[in-house]
Write a structure and sequence with these properties.
This protein is an all-alpha fold and 243 residues long. It has 3 domains: 65 residues, no CATH class; 96 residues; 68 residues, no CATH class. The chain is 56% helix and 0% strand. The longest helix has 25 residues. It starts with a helix and ends in an 11-residue tail after the last helix.
Length: 243
């Protein structure tokens, strides 16, 4: 067992690296070593080969230090630098989205230029495929989808993929499969019940418990249980950012 833990980082499954990069972005406010230990524990409990602590910390640092100007906060001033991405017809909707609570509460990047770009691209699809009843429903669906695409795109950039392949998310949008989208979005994976046979959309991004349940569901159910227990014991403040 000790030998497995010392295995070179290059031997890790691509899905494991992707998982660590993703969580480093998603849980941006969690201290690096604390997050590394948590992810290692979760991977080992899932019978997956986990990296060493130092390797996991290095991957987390790589993800968090991967600077991209489009991950800066979006303002109307961004229209000057990215005029082709933000036509005048998009600005009213973007300013409404900018101040929605759902983006204020997102733990990474908030309402970034990247997310504003995805909103402009995806809003017509949300209207067509999901037919929201009002703006509130539209922005909730769109925010989850935008978060999913943004995190997946950022992870793809960190890995160094020459192109961003979003075909799995595209299929989920076109098939109106919000459950798969919520696996990646700001919902926190609390209401998912996907059954995985080894080829579902999330498999590209995360390791699996062999046979059935998507690993993300199990991980986040356990994480939620631990958080609630710590709140009950008074160890953490439920209103504290990053909890």
């Amino acid at each position: 067992m000790e030998e497995k833990d010392r295995r070179r980082p290059g031997k890790l499954k691509p899905s494991i690296k992707r998982f660590i990069f993703q969580e480093a972005i998603r849980q941006i406010n969690v201290p690096r070593e604390f997050l590394a230990n948590r992810l290692i524990k979760e991977l080992k409990e899932s019978n997956e080969l986990a990296p060493t602590l130092e390797t996991a910390k290095r991957y987390i640092s790589k993800a968090r230090n991967a600077g991209n100007p489009i991950d800066q906060p979006w303002t109307l001033g961004a229209c000057r630098d990215y005029p082709t991405f933000f036509p005048p017809s998009s600005l009213l909707f973007l300013t409404k989205m900018q101040y929605m609570d759902i983006f204020k509460n997102i733990r990474n990047q908030g309402f970034s230029i990247r997310k504003a770009m995805w909103i402009v691209r995806l809003q017509p699809l949300v209207k067509e495929y999901f037919e929201p009843d009002d703006f509130k429903e539209e922005h909730m669906i769109l925010a989850n989808i935008v978060e999913a695409y943004s995190i997946a795109e950022m992870t793809s950039e960190i890995i160094g993929e020459p192109t961003f392949d979003s075909s799995d998310l595209d299929e989920s949008v076109c098939s109106k499969n919000l459950e798969n989208i919520f696996l990646f979005g700001v919902s926190g994976f609390k209401n998912t019940s996907s059954i995985c046979e080894g080829d579902c959309e999330s498999c590209k991004y995360v390791p699996l418990i062999k046979g059935k349940l998507c690993q993300l569901k199990v991980i986040y159910q356990e994480r939620e249980r631990q958080k609630n227990k710590m709140i009950e014991e008074g160890l953490i403040d439920p209103n504290e950012e990053g909890v």
